[in-house]
Amino acid sequence: MTWRAVILGLIAAAGICGVTYYNDCVLHQSLLISDHMPVVIYGGLFFAVALLNPLLRRLRPSWALRSPELAVIMALVLAACAIPAFGLMRTFTASLILPHHHALKQPAWREHKVVGMVPEKMLADISHDEDATLTAFVQGLSEGNRHISWRQIPWSAWQRTLGFWIPLILALWIGLIALAVAIHPQWAHHEQLPYPIARFADSLLRGFDSAQPLLRNRLFWLGCGAIWLIYAWNYLVGWFPELIPIKTNLAFWPLAKLVPTFMKGGGGRLLHITLRFMPIGFAYFLAGDVSFSLGIGPYLWCWIAGAFAGYGIALEAGDYMSLRPASMMNFGAYLGMLLSVIYCGRHYYSNLLRRSVGLPGNAGTEQVWAMRIAMLALGLFTALLGTAGLDWPLAIGYAFGTIVIFVVMSRITAETGLFFIQVWAFPCVLLWGLMGAEALGPSAIATLCLISGVLLLDPREALMPYITNSLRLLEWHHVRLARPAVLCVVAILLGLCIAIPVTLYFQYDRGLATVDSWTQLASSFPFTNALGVHRELAARDTLEAAEACTGLGRLLAIRPDRACLTGFIAGLALVIACAAARVRSTRWPLHPVLFLVWGTYPAWRFAPCFLIGWLAKTLVVRYGGAQLYRRLAPLFIGIIAGEILGYLTGILAGVAYTLCTGELPRYNLWR
């Protein structure tokens, strides 16, 4: 690890935090990050290896970046990717000020004072000058092409709430980075997880090595060029409609009449297939049960949901952040996966915990200190939850649920390479469903849901999965993990210092034009839930008793929702049973990841593509054997690279168009 790599990595991290919101929400371009394999980062790595390094090597060999340096740069910039988009800033500031806007439009909110159910410090302060703080955020302050100055942003209205949220976020993120370092040896060495995303980056970094000349392989360039051409041509079609597009959409609507149960469960979304080539490429390198499970899962879900719908039971009924059997089943599956992971590594984890508290054990020193930092940081996170008015049962329960989600998401990316994950479950909903409204009360539900709206609304870009893949890449290139982990914290601090002011600037400059409709709607979820609970408890004449519950009194007042409890137990049981069957039988065809993702949007979107990749690998291995499988590997790596470069080309073309004409791009590939 060199100073050159550290400086370049921090500059790249600052750059991604400075331009992402502008690209996504002002230019409305294809998303720069959007998932756990950001096209701008991995596309940039491809250009660095294929174009920049050869050029630098020609000018002066010492100028070329070595693979360990590129791995360090990747780690720092990936850590920063958790900040500027869906990981945080896409919804962060809007969630803290738009509830005041909703309250102005909703008489019931004002009547029941729902915004006042959360501590004042959790929301932006509009009491001093509502026009300059709230109205300016909603309407924007720019006039035509004349933009605002930094002084026009009401910084004072944000000081108090940022003083609460930033320490909370940092405590969680530092704890997750340390936890990723602590558990890394078990996943990487003892269980030998494949880390497909990190393996793709590693294959590019080793592209010019004599032992693995990937970038000199014709099959690689054939796959890369063909897929890039498809996306580049279709991008041109968006600008010039008279051209004939290359069709990547397949519709099977005539089959709907043959499968009524399937359609009742939402199967219509699987009858319109959009080919995405990255899942096909990754499926080629996965174990057969993994790719098959990722492919078949949504189809099983639709059959099961349709069967329940036939009996009048809607598994997906309800809003995004509300009590739903499907959400509770999803969280039960996540907990089941965590328990399975802990059981498989029980000896390592027990030794690690013993050494972390000073007892004898044989865990490595680096992992022991990482575990100690994780316990301190996550303990601080729990304590900071308490300062939001949550007593200890709720703070501990919420912190535990948050850790479950991020650890299992990291496990999914490390084991399956699934780069787009949406967790349709929240710790707030878990506590609400398992404890009941009487044990929580409307104020606690509003507070818990608001925290989830900031930290977990759409964790398609989560820090711990980024760090998990970065650690494996660093290790493959012989970089010790402790220093890069510390530098990732520095990258996060730098990214927050840039992303928060930049985001607020564009939001006050353009108003709600930079806040998508989903974010505007989601900012109302915590208080809509609290209002519903308030009315429900008032109708039962239990509102005062619920608001009076604290500490142990909450545990005595537990009344779980039966449907949610059933869904939670079902998800837990399915994953544990599947994991046990997979361990006991080599012929067991399913992987537990099926039950983690089968009811989510990414699974519906990618399921057919994973099945195509699974079928391709099965046929190659059956009829060509291991030799043909290895020979075709560069082709499928090229397919992954081609899609990344195709999207990156569209982004660069849109930026160039805006710089040259001053107009917004008229077409993008991602949205």
Which helices and strands appear, and what pairs or packs with what?
Elements (H helix, E strand, L loop, with lengths): L2 H24 L12 H21 L7 H14 L11 H14 L1 H6 L17 H10 L16 H35 L5 H10 L12 H22 L9 E3 L8 H5 L7 E3 L2 H7 L4 H23 L14 H20 L1 H11 L8 H22 L5 H25 L10 H9 L1 H19 L7 H14 L5 H29 L6 H6 L2 H16 L2 H6 L3 H5 L5 H23 L8 H5 L3 H61 L10
Antiparallel strand pairs: 1-2
Helix pairs in contact: 1-3, 1-20, 2-27, 3-19, 3-20, 4-6, 6-20, 7-15, 7-19, 7-20, 8-19, 9-27, 11-27, 12-27, 13-16, 13-25, 14-15, 15-16, 16-17, 16-19, 17-18, 18-22
Short characterization:
The chain has 671 residues and is an all-alpha fold. The protein is built from 27 helices and 2 strands. The chain is globular.
Structural write-up:
With 671 residues, this protein is an all-alpha fold. The chain has 2 domains: 3-138 and 166-216 and 316-599, no CATH class; 218-312 and 600-671, no CATH class. The chain has 27 helices and 2 strands. It has helices spanning 3-26, 39-59, 67-80, 92-105, 107-112, 130-139, 156-190, 196-205, 218-239, 260-264, 277-283, 288-310, 325-344, 346-356, 365-386, 392-416, 427-435, 437-455, 463-476, 482-510, 517-522, 525-540, 543-548, 552-556, 562-584, 593-597, 601-661; strands at residues 249-251, 272-274. Strands 1-2 form a two-stranded antiparallel ribbon. The longest helix has 61 residues, at 601-661. The protein is globular. The chain starts with a helix and ends in a 10-residue tail after the last helix.
The domain count comes to 2
- What ranges have pLDDT less than 50 throughout 5 or more consecutive residues? none
Q: For the largest beta sheet, what order do the strands appear in spatially? A: 1-2
| Intertermini distance | 38 Å
**Radius of gyration over C-alpha positions, nearest whole angstrom:** 25 Å
How many DSSP helices? Answer: 27
Number of strands: 2
Order of helices and strands: HHHHHHHHHEHEHHHHHHHHHHHHHHHHH
What is the mean predicted local confidence, pLDDT?
A: 91
Shape: globular
- Structural class based on helices, strands and sheet pairing: mainly alpha
Provide the β-strand percentage band: under 5%
Main pleated-sheet profile: 2 strands, antiparallel
